[in-house]
Structure prediction request, 364 residues.
Amino acid sequence: MSDVFPVKGMDAVVFAVGNARQAAHFYSTAFGMRRVAYRGPETGCRDEAAHVLESGSVRFVVRGPVRAGTDLGRHVAEHGDGVVDLAIEVPDVAAAYEYAVSQGARGLEAPHTVEDEHGKVVMAAIATYGETRHTLVDRSNYSGPYLPGYQPAEPLVEPPAKRFFQAIDHCVGNVERMDEWVDFYHRVMGFTDMAEFIGDDIATEYSALMSKVVADGTRKVKFPLNEPAEGKRKSQIEEFLEFYGGPGVQHIALATNDILAAVDAMQAAGVEFLDTPDSYYEDPELRARIGKVRVPVEELQKRRILVDRDEDGYLLQIFTKPVQDRPTVFFELIERHGSMGFGKGNFKALFEAIEREQARRGNL
Ligand SMILES: [Fe+2]
Prediction:
């Protein structure tokens, strides 16, 4: 079957934030990213400042308003710092946009070309859940640092010799009705369900959620979607929806080839990770289930790194606490060794850790 919506991969994760300069500093110092481009009043952009940061193929853009009365400022006031755009690189923007809109996607920006001395970029945008969008980008004829309008910029701090992470693994959305958005990605982008397809409730003593994963045919773009499920107390997804003010991006998973070094460096820089109790590591069932991994379990335990195994291999993963004051967006580090899963075997331990944090916030 021919791919109805070919994609090359994730192009960028764009954040709307209250203070782009400080956010860029955080992602530089705490996430080891290199600032490569900037746009703002100094470059003729009167309404906002935006910094572009990279780590391997990961590109973050942090945008903050520089004056009152902007739509970006309204977004930040309503949702707090959060993800406004999961931009996808595609080989043919016009074809992708037309297909998406013909399948019922709401068009936000028709295909258009922007250019400067570095070449041309074709872009269009469609709406997805909440106020989130997917910009579709073809930068195959462009050599500039990001997009026309952005100037190359020096790093804010010297990046570490070794990157903490290299690629975006997956981007997770919290929505009110999961099946509606699973259907949206099936229809609009021709995405299919991934092998690890979690249709059942994932329940802990207090809360529950449902989760399904859709991805493009090449599995370069993976979007898990969560919905709150009935539980004894407020689910972590309900907490997100309440504090974000509707559906939005819950977490971005970053692929790393050395999760131990990444956790050590990020922790030293002040990033807070979710705690996992010692009982998780001391459970003989876990040790039997995970088998042999590349480091002793004690090394994982020291850093609270979770491990899961399936028929294809294993993965190591860990989650940060929310990275802004609102209990909304957070990050995951993931080191895959064959497994294409999402850590299903860890969901219970992970959710119990999240619930301990929810309880501390008075939201459980
Ligand atoms: Fe994840």
Notes: The pocket of fe (ii) ion is lined by residues 170, 172, 251, 253, 332, 342 (CB under 6 Å). The longest strand covers residues 107-116. The radius of gyration is 20 Å.
